[in-house]
Amino acid sequence: MKTARFLAEQIRRLHQAGIRVFIIRGNHDALSRITKELTFPDSVKVFGGRAEAVAVDRDAGHFPVAIHGLSFAQPHAPESLIAKYKPAVAGAVNIGIMHTSLAGAPGHDPYAPCSLSDLHATGFQYWALGHVHKRSIVEGACAIVMPGMPQGRDINESGAKSVTLVTIRDDRSIHIEERATSIAQFERVSIDATGLDDWRDLITAVTRVLEQTREAVGSEHLVARLRVTGATALSWRIRRDHDLLKAEADDRGSLIGACWIEKLEVATHSVTETADSSADPLVELRRLIEEEVLQSESFQAELAAVADELRAQLPQECRDGFGADEAAFKAGLTLLAREGTEDILARLHASEKGA
Question: CA-based, 20 to 30 A from 16: which of 97, 284, 326, 332?
Fold first, then answer.
């Protein structure tokens, strides 16, 4: 209700400023009882499950404008909705708003799929689309805007976020302008530790990369996921003292200012692995694990059984963390097994060195 109340307050501000609002419901709104129960001012048009074309009040002498919209009646819309929209109003600037995945996008389920040619064929001058969280623009006789989202919610929605201001000029030409809005910007930040053999040099490298990233980010806050890579003599220590390195990165982020470390990932390997080190028992152990243990059917079956047990205990909305399909599930387990191998070898290496 807090989110719904915020939405209602902002729409009231638009109403007080004399700005009309046109709303369609997508897959999430179709599921939500809260948004259906919100009461809006008369200046707000919420499209229903049947397509409508709404004429916008204009002063005499101005060209007419028609807003076309259609809401999801159900949470899923597996087929195109284009054919259900009203025809373009003759002589008017026709604006369509639709919730659609277009031809599909990674990480997004297909909703009301359609092609750019389908949108052009409607004869509308502008299509405002929703659903895919990544901004995309097609300009031309029919401008098509997928504005993305005003604020990323997690590391999988990294990069600057914005809204799009679209102006239809008196000559009916369309001007599209991106307006940055994200208060916090998520970014994946890579630190190459190749050749480093001193812990202080590693901290210096982390600090330098964070400073460069913070300077390049226009949002008020930077939320960074650090990934340390490369062949380094510090590999075993980085894995063993993962928590200490995270604390060091947190400290450097606080000194830089408005810089927060969301997570620290380690993908380093020891420099000894790049040379002929067949006599090293840990190298031989790695080979046995990678070639015999990880590849064995019994190990894979046991790992999958453990993952299935854990996944069954998670809320339904969190279960895709193990992979949305069978291929992603297997790939994720393989990655986890390899990361576990690296951590075990790092601890063995530390014990061998007496550290």
Answer: 97
